[in-house]
Design a protein that fits this description.
By secondary structure, the protein is mostly helical. Helices cover 83% and strands 0% of the residues. It is elongated and about 55 Å long.
C-alpha cells in the first residue's frame, strides 16, 4: 500500500530538505557574512549527494510517466 505513495513522499522530502538547506544558507549569509564562504564551500561538497538524490527522483518520475502512458494505473 505504501509503495504507490513512496514517489510523492520522496519528492516532498527532497523539496523540504532543499528548502531547509537554502533557508539555512540565506540565514548565515544575512546574520554572519564572515562565515558565508565557509558555509558555501561546505554546501558545495554536498553536490554529489544531491546529484544522486535528484537522479533517483528523476527515475521515479520517468517510471511513473511510463506507467501512465502504458495505462498501468496503480490502485
Amino acid at each position: 500500500p505504501y509503495v504507490r505513495r513512496m514517489r510523492p513522499t520522496f519528492g516532498y522530502m527532497m523539496a523540504a530538505t532543499w528548502g531547509a538547506q537554502m533557508l539555512a544558507l540565506a540565514y548565515i549569509i544575512v546574520t554572519d557574512p564572515a562565515q558565508a564562504s565557509a558555509v558555501l564551500n561546505a554546501m558545495a561538497s554536498l553536490g554529489t549527494i544531491w546529484a544522486v538524490a535528484l537522479s533517483v527522483l528523476g527515475i521515479y518520475v520517468y517510471g511513473r510517466s511510463n506507467e501512465k502512458i502504458k495505462g498501468t494505473e496503480l490502485r
